[in-house]
Amino acid sequence: MNDMENGSAAVVLRPGRDIVASTVEGLRQEWKKALTPGVAALTVDLSDVEMIDSVGLGLLIATHNTLGKVGGKLRIAHACPDILGLLRTMRLDKHFILES
Predict the structure, then answer these.
(1) Which domains are assigned to the chain?
(2) What is the pLDDT of residues 43-87, one digit of tens each?
(3) What's the predicted TM-score (pTM) here?
(4) d(CA 10, CA 6)
């Protein structure tokens, strides 16, 4: 299940499951619906996510790129230490905003 909280120009997505190859297509469709005109900030709350694979990283990067085209920002919130380490190793912390 993907919970969505929509403010005026900000959206919070809570995937509620790992972001891996078997779940990415469903998440991609749900996230596209959230990226409506006027959305300038998207936060992905990873509270219930324990793993992200290369396909999941691709989804985050594609989402970041989509937001960047309209001057928006991607925030990653509540990531576990392993995922934070992965994002930092991949130097994605230079592109995404990481929040505790």
Answers:
(1) 3-99 (3.30.750.24)
(2) 999 999 999 999 999 999 999 999 998 888 899 999 999 999 999
(3) 0.88
(4) 6
